[in-house]
Amino acid sequence: MEESDQKRFAIGDVTFDRVRYSAFVDELNCWIDPPRPIVEYDETPEDHNLRFDADGGLVQFFIYPARHQLEADGEIRVTLPGRPTVVLTREELEPWMVDSDERSLLGEPRRRRLRFPRWMRRREIAREEREMQRRLEQAERDAQRYLPPELRTR
């Protein structure tokens, strides 16, 4: 099996090119490439979400809550439009139920780091420094106000 085939996921005769699982929302998202604009939404009889392009072709498919359904029933049933019901077993789904926020599809750690433009970082640092200076001055005023007169420095 080639590496490109390893990251494809099939439900019956429909093959999805990209798969992403988010543990935070317990959602398994499947896409068919190439990416196309989504113009229509629908649901399967099992309440899974489907998204279609302008030609009526399936673009995206969601299973929600994926892990919960899998643990409750031991399987997930899927009925795509115009196709028979497919039963997805735990063995078929477990390789895909790895949180994509922690691991990419090829198993490499994903490094997510927010990058702000330098001017935004400088502005934020200057704002924090002004706020710290203001708090320090306020603390000194409060200390002088509540100290006995013989301990005051001003």
Distance from N terminus to C terminus (CA atoms, Å) equals 80 Å
The total beta strand count reads 9
* Multimeric organization: single chain
How many helical elements?
A: 4
Give the helix proportion (percent range). 25-40%
What would you call the structural class?
A: alpha+beta
Strand order of the largest sheet: 3-4-7-6-5
The general outline is elongated
The domain tally reads: 2
Protein model, in words:
- The chain is of the alpha+beta class.
- The protein has 2 domains: 3-96, no CATH class; 118-151.
- The chain has helices spanning 3-6, 66-73, 90-93, 118-146; strands spanning 9-11, 14-16, 18-22, 27-31, 40-43, 49-52, 58-63, 75-78, 86-89.
- A 5-stranded antiparallel β-sheet has the order 3-4-7-6-5, with no helix packed on it. Strands 1-2 form a two-stranded antiparallel sheet. A two-stranded antiparallel sheet has the order 8-9.
- The protein is elongated and about 90 Å long.
- Residues 1-5 and 103-109 have low confidence and may be disordered.
